[in-house]
Write the structure tokens for this entry.
Amino acid sequence: MATAQERDRERAGQLPPRETAALLRTETDAPAPHMPPVPSIALSWQRCAEAGVHRDQPAPLPASADLPAPDATALARTLGFVDAEARLLDLVCDPDSVAALAAQGWTTGSCWSEQCAGTNGVALALLESFPAQVCGSDHYCAFLSPYCTAAAPVHDSLGGLVGAFVAIAPAASAHPHTLGMVSAAASALTGELRMNLWLSSANELLSEMNAILQTLSEGILMLLPDGTVSQMNARAGHLLGLAPSRVTGRRLADMVNLPQAFGEALRLGRELHDEEVTFVRVGGERVTCLCTLHAVASPSALASMSALTGVPDAGALLGAGQRPGGLSVSPRAGSGGYVITLRSIERVQRLVHRMTGAQARMRFSNIVGQSASLLEAVRLAHIAAGSASTVLLHGETGTGKEVFAQSIHSGSARASGPFVAINCAAIPRELISSELFGYEGGSFTGADRQGRPGKFELANGGTLFLDEIGDMPRDLQTSLLRAIETRSVVRVGGQNVIPVDVRIIAATHKDLADEVRLGNFRSDLFFRLNVFPIEVPPLRRRTGDVELLLRAVLEQLSNRLNRALGIEPEALAALEAYAWPGNVRELENVIERAVYVSERGVLALRDLPEAIRYGQRSEPAGHGGPAAQFGGLGATPGVVPGAASASAPPGGLRRESETAAALHIQRVLASCGGNMTEAARLLGVSRTTLWRKRQRYQL
């Protein structure tokens, strides 16, 4: 019969219920054993009884009679570790004690959970995730009664159970401090695991940051306050001609010649933002970069400033240029070093060219025409593209000289480089020098404070197209000649010689040889430019190309306007008969206007300008030849166009010329027996033009 005290302890969970005690009596056919006074141990006994664990079961591994009994002194120094499943992973003691404990079941891999070995310190520590110690008869199974088992759980950084640190000692020599020792060891091991995880994460993060640093297209340096290199990526080493692995810990000023502006910024603690600076490498080689310098505030400086001002983030206020709490601190005082960003000036220029369109878009395939004069010019341009010589393009306005220049660049070895064009006639005389050669900051009123590169520098590694070179002022021709000969420039207001690798393609509508004789153009510059001259023919001398150009222009407009376009034969004949003083540019403009004026998709004669409808020929002065004759036809013998213009009444010359032309066409047709093809060949015109003339003169 249970006493009232026993029932109270049973209800409080400190003793197993009477049914459990009955189970214990059934197992041993003896009175119920002494129940442990510790509640957690008593509950463990209850779980073991309910699970059917026998108190007199043998050790997890059978004992061997050949092994000696465990020595108490050795056991006092025995430590071990189990995993989260209560499997023994290791024991630390002398070999004899290991063998003795093995006889009692303490072997690597043996299970010490409640289901395998009943109540013990290892099982309790893992189940409750709290240090536990079980001594002597408090063990559920009898084979553990001679021992005292103490264990403390070990957790990872996220709180997950890793295992338990175990100490085994004889029950007779057990001491409460044993559990404290095990707990301290487990805490240290938990801290070590967390530290290892933190270090592993930090190393991974450091590796990722280093990988990012090394793959950046900009050069990055980290300098300590005294100018010592702390970090340098490969790009910065390439720009400065240094090996990053060899410069760490050395002063940057000892390895490269620092620019004055850069040195002043370091000395005064002043930041730089995309300043153009020139470093001098070992050996005297100069390299120009865009430099950005930022001061980095040290943690100690920020902490002291926060303490003085009472502002938690005083460093942020200082970085914003404020004076927190009235305290004045210079940027240098709080500097923990400097981060320097270097950008190659060539790379920046390539980006500028790509964004501003300083790239050649035209190819030889964009040149439309099949006339003999045009094909000869294209043949020479192909040869020029394969060379590195200076090219001089000569031709009237609108003939497509820039198309030839871009095609030569695109077909050359410099195709991947920039194509920079400058119109020498469109820039004021006072600015053309700074446009070509650039200027230093503050060189003249209105100049950019940081300076600006010229066209020669922007075209470095590519082609510089000098359009309308014949209109360049004579006093600037000397500077251009020197830049071409020396392949270097000096900025306006500067002293440094900047090497440039530029190919020159010049173009003009003037006869430079005549300009030299007139004293308007320097002969030495003319001879320097006239290495590979190419004559771009005017449209009136490109027989049969008008129709091809017309088709190309109509196709472009059709794609742009998303509508079908065509042209009537009369309109085509009028276009072919016109002299085109504005050449291809005029043709493109006329067709575009006609497309918008036309009421339908097919261009008619009425859609063209009056000068083209009536066959008026605005022939440029100084250009004669067969194309200058009326309508492109062969001249009538004895008739000189314009000979009677001084005395003839208005319209008289035109009527006489038309009559002569009609008679000449009629004679040629009669001689050919009415064969249009043969007559057109003899007259030097196309069949369309001849057909139009017959319609006009009613032949």
About this structure: Residues 216-322+331-350 form a domain with the Beta-Lactamase fold (CATH 3.30.450.20).
